[in-house]
Write a structure and sequence with these properties.
The complex is a heterodimer of chains A (163) and B (99).
Chain A (H helix, E strand, L loop, with lengths): L1 H22 L3 H21 L3 H25 L15 H21 L13 H9 L4 H21 L5
Chain B lengths: L3 H20 L3 H25 L4 H31 L13
Helix pairs in contact in B: 1-2, 2-3
The chains are: A mainly alpha (163), B mainly alpha (99).
């Protein structure tokens, strides 16, 4: 019962803040709403017994991405203000496509039998993640490190001072 | 509680993000929509992983979170570069490749 109530509250927060992200007129407010949405997702992760992922979500997403986006907005601020319209002329079409997409997924989900209860996890989840990352998934893990290094170098190269 | 509510929530957030990507004029706003969609995918991965009692889905979530952070950093660097060259970040003003 507690799980249902928590899930309902987190869903309201998540969907509400997601709507605010795409609808708010001021882009800076949209970023702050995105921070709330990402924190709500961390709550959903906690509800799914994934404490480690909730921590990663808060550190990397809600901490990292929000900071980067705020800096980007500050740097490109000249044309961003409440007086400028932030949406294009295709709101009706975009809403139609989104609703049709959502309806399609709901129909597909309704047709398939999904597990109704959770199996017990074998042991501590964080320990399991750590062991699997360093044994079975060690190659993707190392590739990911290379990817992040290359991405970081690329970002620094793009945003270098003008010469 | 079953798996279905989690999948419905993630589908809803994904659709909202899709709407944001299609309607925002500002390039940074489009990136925010992409972040929302990625977030919905992560919820899906974690929910499936929990309900099949396998850790693989959670490990892939760690990977997607890292890739999303890299993508956001690179995307915003490109936005800053665009602003420097064209003095605008509105997607409908960036029509250099339009025939």
């Amino acid at each position: 019962m507690t799980e249902q109530i928590t899930f309902a509250a987190l869903s309201i927060v998540l969907v509400g803040s997601a709507l605010a992200v795409v609808l708010s007129k001021n882009l800076f407010h949209a970023v702050l709403w995105l921070a709330l949405a990402l924190t709500g997702t961390a709550g959903i992760f906690l509800l799914l017994d994934a404490e480690f992922l909730a921590a990663v979500q808060l550190l990397l997403y809600a901490g990292g991405i929000i900071t980067i986006v705020v800096f980007a907005i500050v740097v490109t601020e000249r044309l961003i203000g409440e007086r400028l319209t932030q949406t294009n002329m295709r709101i009706g079409g975009a809403a139609f496509v989104s609703v049709v997409f959502l309806g399609f997924i709901v129909v597909v989900l309704g047709r398939h039998a999904l597990p109704a209860f959770r199996p017990e996890m074998p042991g501590d989840l964080t320990r399991l993640i750590g062991e699997t990352v360093l044994t079975r998934y060690v190659l993707p893990f190392e590739l990911l490190a290379v990817l992040m290094l290359v991405g970081m170098l690329g970002a620094i190269y793009f945003a270098r001072p003008e010469d | 509680m079953g798996l279905q509510p989690y999948l419905l929530l993630s589908a809803t957030v994904f659709s909202i993000g899709l709407f944001g990507v299609m309607t925002r004029r500002n390039t940074i706003g489009i990136l925010l929509g992409v972040e929302l969609m990625m977030n919905a995918v992560n919820i899906n991965l974690v929910a499936f992983s929990r309900y099949t009692a396998a850790a693989s889905g959670m490990i892939f979530t760690v990977f997607t979170i890292c890739i999303t952070v890299t993508e956001a950093a690179l995307g915003l660097a490109i936005v800053i570069l665009l602003f420097r060259v064209r003095r605008t970040v509105m997607a409908d003003h960036l029509d250099l490749l339009k025939g």
